[in-house]
Amino acid sequence: MAIEVRIPTILRTYTDGEKSVTGEGGTLSEVIEDLETNHPGIKERLVEATDGQSDLRRFVNVYVNDEDVRFTGGLETSVSDGDQVVVLPAVAGG
Amino acid sequence: MLSIGRATYDAIVAHARQDHPDEACGVVAGPEGSDRPERFVPMTNAARSPTFYEFDPADLLALYQEMDSRGEEPVVVYHSHTATEAYPSRTDIGLATEPNAHYVLVSTREHGNSEGHVEFRSYRIVDGQVSEEEVSVVDDTVSEPPSGIVSAHRAKD
């Protein structure tokens, strides 16, 4: 068992076109690190570092089991086998 | 070129008028790979702003799950500008993340909530590059003849 991560169209260049990949880890942050080893470059599209502090990018939404992680601890949100992570870029503009 | 049904076109314009002076936003979903905008889905602008729009993150998830289960994708992503022309802003370009979508911009700057001309334009936005495309409004109120014929007819309007 592992954690399923749903990849949006715009990031499928990192996953050979796959809509869904699997990752391992106990927190969202660890899952993203694991994704990065198999899909180099993807982390940079999800996470940004400001003042040495890593955080999700403002216009990237991540959900664990349909919960927006902004309300469940952000990158430190805990995940376990069988959980589903969904990544969706914001639909936004000016 | 964007080929869009009259009823959907009218619904986008009506949504923009209704939400003026705030920006209105939404999608028109269609079968994956079909390039046919068929299912009009107005969204709430969580920013409730005259200069910014953003789908509510919970609504966004629900929308994509629904499209997924129906085998759809966002064929059109639309929003309104309420004080400027119907051309993608720098923010629109920077945040565009659907390379396969037609980005529709409408502008209510002329008549606001009232009846009257609403600018309606469509673009592709890929890797920061904007290209405008022709919009062909097809009559979807009657059973459809082959689409090529309808487009050619409507293009003369």
Defining traits:
heterodimer; A: 94 residues; alpha+beta; Ubiquitin-like (UB roll); two-stranded antiparallel ribbon; 2 helices; B: 157 residues; alpha/beta; 4 helices; 27% helix; disordered C terminus
Q: Mind explaining what this structure looks like?
A:
With 94 residues, chain A is of the alpha+beta class. Chain A has a single domain (3-89), classed as Roll (Ubiquitin-like (UB roll)), CATH 3.10.20.30. Chain A is 17% helix and 33% strand. Chain A has helices at residues 28-38, 42-46, and strands spanning 3-6, 20-23, 47-50, 53-56, 60-64, 67-68, 84-89, 92-93. In chain A, the strands form 2 sheets. Chain A has a 5-stranded mixed sheet, with helices on one face. In chain A, strand 5 and strand 6 (67-68) form a beta hairpin. Chain A is globular and about 40 Å long. The relative contact order of chain A is 0.24. With 157 residues, chain B is of the alpha/beta class. Chain B has one domain (2-155): Cytidine Deaminase, domain 2 (3-Layer(aba) Sandwich). Chain B has a 6-stranded mixed sheet with strand order 3-2-5-6-7-8. In chain B, strands 1-9 form a two-stranded parallel ribbon. In chain B, a hairpin with a 2-residue loop joins strand 7 (119-126) and strand 8. The longest helix of chain B has 14 residues, at 6-19. The radius of gyration of chain B is 15 Å and the shape is globular. The model of chain B is unreliable at 149-157 (pLDDT under 50). Classes of the chains: A alpha+beta (94), B alpha/beta (157). The interface between A and B is medium-sized, with 17 and 29 residues.
